[in-house]
Amino acid sequence: MKHAPLTDNDYQRLSATLQRFQRLQCMNLEKLDGFFTALLCGPEAIKPTECLPLILGEAFDDEQAFRSEKDLEKFVGLLMGHWLDIAHTLQQGADFQPWLDADEQGVVHGNDWAEGFVEGMQLQQDDWNLLFDDAEHAGALEAIMALAFERHPDPEMRPYIDNSDSSQREQWLAAISPAVQEIYQFFATIRAQMEAELEQDEADEQR
Questions:
Q1: Is residue 1 in a domain?
Q2: Which of 11, 96, 104, 110 has the fewest CB atoms in 10 Å of its CB?
Q3: Residue 18 sits in a domain of what CATH number?
Q4: Model pTM?
């Protein structure tokens, strides 16, 4: 099946919808991108529809959030499209480019993306501990974790007490793409094993 990526207009609509719910603790597109990337890199992909409460925040329980069922379906369709865009990039081994928005001064921070990634990791914390405990590959998480905890309210949880300089930030941001590919490959064997077991279970049920 040929992959049909979302268009620029699709992404504008997705971003605008997420932005509309910002006051209700909804993820923005940058955080959503990090969140989806973690779910797809991990050992077991969780369907985006299962994560709607986390994505939408309080808007998930707001009956007035979407004007109609059709509007909600369109939104979910855009979410799935973005999910498939990321999945396709990872599966093809293509260069991964995180969705990073610039602030009003044109500065890219990357914190929202990294915080979204960590939120995705937390859904399968036990499985992600396999990576944390792997001496050879654990370093792939260093830049992501640094950005994710840079704004933590507890100073002891921040990688740097003072704000990082622009050079350090550029290094962290540049490290995201290769890190994602390394993490995706790290869990590849586990994903393949789980998919094989699922196929075997389905085959057994059909007998």
A1: no
A2: 104
A3: 1.20.120
A4: 0.90
